[in-house]
Specification:
Layout (H helix, E strand, L loop, with lengths): L10 H20 L4 H20 L3 H10 L3 H5 L1
Helix pairs in contact: 1-2, 2-3
Length: about 80
């Protein structure tokens, strides 16, 4: 995974970010939220995970997570 600023993340971190997204997405659905809200919650959870694990800026983490197009996971 590469950021717009050229930062990269290893495969293990990428998998952890994907897991954070999927778990947060599922929890939001289980709480009765619609898929759009669940997706937004998932992105936030994944970005928070990435920022915490890599010590990068929150806004950069959010951009990197959005670039991963994680909605595909929700559609799978």
């Amino acid at each position: 995974m590469e950021s717009p600023r050229g930062r990269t993340v290893d495969d293990t971190t990428r998998e952890m970010v994907i897991t954070a997204y999927a778990e947060t997405f599922d929890e939001a659905l289980d709480a009765g939220h619609d898929e759009t809200t669940a997706h937004r919650e998932g992105l936030t959870g994944a970005a928070m995970c990435l920022a915490a694990m890599t010590s990068i800026d929150d806004s950069l983490a959010r951009s990197m997570v959005e670039a991963m197009d994680l909605r595909k996971l929700a559609d799978a």
